[in-house]
Predict the structure.
Amino acid sequence: MRILFIGTEVSLKNSPEGIVSRALVEGFIKNGCTVDLVSPVLPDSIAGVSEYFTYDAKENFFVNKLHKKITGFEGGGFYDYCCNLIDSINLENYNLVFIRSDPVSLHKIALYVNEKSSIQCVCSFGDVGSVNPYYKGGLLTRLRKKNLVDLEQKIIGRGNIITQTNQRSIDLYQEAGFDISRFQVLPNPIVSTVDRSQPLLSAEALSGYSPAIAECYNEVSNASLKHAHNVAFIGSFYGERKPDRMLDYFADREDVALHVFGGVRNILFEKKGMLYQWMKEKGLKELGDNAKKRGVKNFYIWPFMPIALINSLITNRFDGLINVDADFNPNPFLSSKVVQYLSYGKSVFNFSNEGATVDLLRESGIDYFIDYSSPAKDSRSYEALSALTRPKVDLADYYSREAVTRRFLDYLAV
């Protein structure tokens, strides 16, 4: 099968959606597909991509986000670039056009393809679109929602396949009156295979990274030795995904150290400039002050790190991992980090409501989660809680990039 894979987030090195998009590309390649990729400039090349079409125009991040805030559609010239590219290539050389979009507006490309060819299109959503529970409120919010509903209805009406990361998202579309007969679950895959017997990285191995990253790795390793138990949150807090319940849960626990890798949005680490730096420092200071105010005894904030270093540290120095969802009930969001967490075989402390994340962790045998609807604090020992939050079913192979994309390819073949 030859696939034309189109996406923007794939070009962001530390963005969760970017990491997932690259894993999907790699999964298709590992399953024997020929993949041509259309995206902005990649941070690193993807082994096995057949042909790479690069969009290298400079974009104004804030202007694009303002456009999205008003209309619901991402701004910028990538859509026009893709349409011009489609006009210049022979679509009949492909079996599938696969569009992976966190900005939902990118799926407009499917409508352009539909006008040019009968080739099958997959509109793969990295997150829920018009039924997103964030879309409540004033006039602008209603306008954004209306625009997205109109686009999604057109995409569905043309017979394109729609993927969501979990069944809870599809349920929301059904409740909103959408025809879901062309919807399919395409879960986020595990983005990095973990060797659970790996040692800590040697000085020689660390020499391949920048001195700042290598130093940070050693600092994390050394700091973790000071505590009986170490737990890690990997990701960012923004919008309705707030750290308060997590901080309260681990407050006053002398034997547990809480480590946050990231803390603020990935884009603030990737973008240059004084404004981004100020926003990052402001967010991290507020997080640290909040942890202190709520009584967390042992609290660390670390920068985002390459996945190989994270894998090594989690395997050798950490007892548990943390997921924090936005407080929506039911929860339609399935963070890519939760799937990756399953590859470690460690405890997962999940702060959520009934919904997508709880469903996934139940597959692994973890029934316990910290329910936002129940304010009572769990005072049991860390050892007791760790036993409740440890996976009983190993799903690492089932959610590997090869397995996830293989099942999807099998679905397409039916």
